[in-house]
Amino acid sequence: MTTTTVSEEVTHRWYARPVLFVADVNRALRFYIDLLGFKKAWHEGDGRGTVCQVHRGECEIILCEDASRRDKGRLFVSLTREGLAELRGEIVETTRSRSSIRTATSCCFPFPSRRGVGSVNVCRARNHCLDRAG
Predict the structure, then answer these.
(1) What global pTM score does this model have?
(2) Which of the listed CATH numbers 1.10.10.10, 3.10.180.10, 3.30.70.100, 3.30.1490.20 matches domain 15-76?
(3) Which of 37, 53, 64, 104 has a beta carbon 3.0–4.6 Å from 41's, enabling a disulfide?
(4) Whole-number pLDDT of residue 125
(5) 3-state secondary structure the chain
(6) Taking a C-beta distance cutoff of 8 angstroms, is the pair 7, 72 a contact?
(7) Residue 121 has pLDDT above 50, yes or no
(8) What is the pLDDT of residues 44-75, one digit of tens each?
């Protein structure tokens, strides 16, 4: 009789939404809701804030009012603590094997901390780092 060891690989869902910077969040809301049929999921400041999220089916978009960045975007990714720890380990291993990477990239991963919401900044450059702030 042969004994087979089964290892379970834990996967963590990357809950990602694009963040679109707009000049006027209320105007953008009207566009997504009235023209494209989206629904508003939440709106900062009880509907008076400058950040909100709309969705249609499985498509979710965060709208952020910032006229100086209106042609820019960002990807917001939520991970569990376990998923973040796993990602950190993967990044450390990857950067060790690719120590000659010279291009700098930056990612900010928010996480709940004792002082509210913090973030993990991932930098790949000559000196690799994975800093936790918050």
Answers:
(1) 0.59
(2) 3.10.180.10
(3) 53
(4) 34
(5) CCCCCCCCCCCCCCEEEEEEEECCHHHHHHHHHHHCCCEEEEEHHHHCCCEEEEEECCEEEEEEECHHHCCCEEEEEECCHHHHHHHHHHHHHHHHHCCCCCCCEEEEEEEEECCEEEEEEEEECCCCEEEEEC
(6) no
(7) no
(8) 999 999 999 999 999 999 999 998 887 888 88
